[in-house]
Amino acid sequence: MSATHPASASPATSKLAGIPGIRHIIAVASGKGGVGKSTTSCNLALGFAAIGLKVGILDADVYGPSQPKLFGLRGKPRLLGSRMLEPMERFGVKVMSIGFLVEEDNAMIWRGPMVISAITQMLREVAWGDLDILVVDLPPGTGDAQLTMAQQTPLAGAVIVSTPQDIALIDARRGIEMFRKVNVPMLGLIENMSSFCCPACNHVTPIFGHGGARIEAETRGIPYLGEIPLDIAIRQTSDDGRPIVATDPDSVHAKRYIDIARQLWASINTDVASKPPPRIVIE
Ligand code: ADP
Question: Would the N or C end of the chain have less CB density within 10 A of its end CB?
């Protein structure tokens, strides 16, 4: 099943040429690396697939592409014709990553313009086919590459992933500010590694604090999408290329990702979300 309602384009991105076949593009960003942005992007993409959408993920994190590993994918995408690449596919999600195309160490030394050109190519010269939603896993931070990306991609909106503690939130704030400057709608904040529940004794420890992202979202007047705990099952399934939403969709953690995907889908389809529910008339 695939939902069929068009979303309104964002003010900043409506002028940009869309990608044929792709209805919505959302960016997942973070102020700093290591907060779980790629893991969240991967599981959110799978969450969109779990609610019946046609989904792709573009790994724009050229300095540290993680999606091939997260999806357990290897090999090179096929060339279709002279310049279009066929995305790889796993768990029902189409995946494109610079990690399929160049040695990681190569991309490490790329400057901003090369990064932008590589991402633009992966966006526009990949045979994505018909997608309801494309998730873009952006590089961490708010440098020129991210800013230009945010300006050049026809985005329906952006999501920021942060851990709860101040040091991460300070950087997340920069991300929020960056998207605000380029008029990309802020779809919300996700608190990752929110708390840790000891599997041996069930004691909950807020290793990186707890609730910081919610307060931040409330202070800035942006949606708070929810929290994902720090849990070994998320780390292990990610490392094994068997992401939790795909391999254990009924688990508590998978349900959280799916719930966030559902909220996001509703918010980019505000025309759907704002419609009153149908009335059942019994005659
Ligand atoms: P980023 O993309 O922000 O650099 P990653 O998604 O690569 O971060 O995550 C960094 C590490 O943290 C990875 O080893 C990943 O498996 C782990 N991780 C991410 N989110 C969680 C979580 N909620 N619980 C446990 N480990 C997590």
Answer: C
Residue 236 buriedness (CB in 10 A; 0-12 / 13-18 / 19+): exposed
Q: Please work out whether the CB of residue 66 comes within 6 Å of at least one atom of ligand 1.
A: yes
Atom of ligand 1 nearest to the CA of 33: 4
Q: Across-strand partners of 58?
A: 96, 136
C-alpha to C-alpha distance for 283 and 281, rounded to whole angstroms? 6
Atom of ligand 1 nearest to the CA of 229: 23
70-121 pLDDT tens trace: 999 999 999 998 889 999 999 999 999 999 988 767 766 777 888 888 888 9
Helix (H, G, I), strand (E, B) or coil at 230: strand
Question: Whose C-alpha lies nearest to ligand 1, atom 14?
Answer: 235
178 lines ligand 1 (CB under 6 A): no
> 3-class SS at 145?
helix
Please give the structure tokens belonging to residue 183: 């008029």
Instruction: Say what the pTM is.
Output: 0.89
- Domains of the chain by range and CATH? 21-273 (3.40.50.300)
35 lines ligand 1 (CB under 6 A): yes
